[in-house]
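Budget justification aside, the reviewers requested a transparent look at the raw inputs and outputs of the sequence design task funded under Objective 1. We therefore reproduce one unedited record. The lines immediately below are the structure tokens for a 258-residue chain.
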């Protein structure tokens, strides 16, 4: 998707994958190499999103979420950003969904749940967080509430939840190669016809999304968020406003691949 965007922008750049050993010494050397080679920037994915924190000047959002997915090399200094939360909100907006004041049931408490819950709380949404490991849900809710008082509560994994109009799956359940898996849902999961948003993009239709659609809910998969977090990264690297990033070309490239 990035190469499609670079071509559309007429930039003589290329986006390539690097398989980086997550050993801390190696991570530090890889980042020094990035500087030495004069790369514009990189995206960072699991398990490096946290490992690069000590070596980058982190944005407020990256510090808050404790993870970096985008690094920009500016004048030999490495700046770390997290575009996941903003990408999540942009995708929701693009689907014509309000992003403010929503009552949310958030499944999961990992890295993406952190980005999503802070993003939603920043828009005045209230999140009930359910996670298999409840202690992680509590820790996340505490962190969110420290920044946005009373924005988050914890609810049992698979237990009845208070009313909600947006259900977000941030767990890996249902992601390839575990397509048959699905997160535990409260008995009232689809009763209020919530909008159901699954962050997974492979497969594009998870068991959760199929069940939600069968129950008459509107649904969305993770493709939009993937595209928007990438578009936001490209805006950072190029210094161009987001409106100039060719999002449609990026999305077409992703959909062609999927
Ligand atoms: P993560 O930090 O590893 O978190 C994984 C979450 O899944 C945790 O809440 C974990 O619960 C839960 N989980 C895993 N296996 C489970 C099981 N067998 N039963 C119940 N819960 C289980 O991962 P992440 O970075 O947040 O990513 C999560 C998903 O979001 C992935 O599918 C990823 O592809 C997707 N994602 C999409 C985008 C996008 O742009 N669309 C961006 C980021 C992430 P415990 O705490 O109990 O282990």
């Amino acid at each position: 998707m990035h190469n499609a965007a670079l071509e559309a922008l007429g930039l003589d750049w290329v986006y390539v994958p690097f398989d980086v050993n997550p050993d801390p010494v190696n991570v530090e050397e890889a980042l020094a190499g990035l500087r030495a080679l004069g790369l514009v920037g990189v995206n960072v994915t699991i398990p490096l999103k946290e490992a690069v924190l000590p070596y980058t000047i982190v944005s407020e959002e990256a510090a808050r979420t404790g993870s970096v997915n985008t690094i920009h090399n500016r004048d030999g200094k490495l700046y770390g950003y997290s575009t996941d939360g903003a990408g999540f909100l942009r995708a929701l907006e693009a689907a014509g969904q309000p992003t403010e004041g929503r009552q949310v049931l958030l499944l999961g408490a990992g890295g993406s749940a952190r980005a999503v819950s802070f993003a939603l709380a920043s828009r005045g949404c209230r999140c009930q967080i359910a996670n298999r490991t409840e202690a992680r849900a509590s820790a996340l809710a505490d962190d969110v509430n420290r920044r946005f008082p009373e924005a988050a509560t914890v609810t049992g994994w698979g237990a009845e939840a208070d009313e909600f109009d947006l259900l977000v799956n941030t767990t890996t359940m249902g992601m390839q190669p575990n397509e048959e898996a699905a997160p535990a849902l409260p008995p009232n999961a689809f009763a209020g016809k919530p909008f159901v948003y699954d962050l997974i993009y492979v497969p594009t239709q998870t068991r959760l999304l199929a069940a939600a659609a069968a129950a008459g809910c509107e649904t969305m998969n993770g493709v939009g968020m993937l595209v928007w977090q990438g578009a936001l990264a490209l805006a950072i690297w190029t210094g161009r406003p987001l409106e100039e990033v060719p999002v449609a070309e990026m999305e077409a490239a992703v959909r062609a691949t999927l």
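Residues 223-238 form the longest helix (16 residues). The longest strand covers residues 70-74. Computational costs for records of this kind are itemized in the attached budget.
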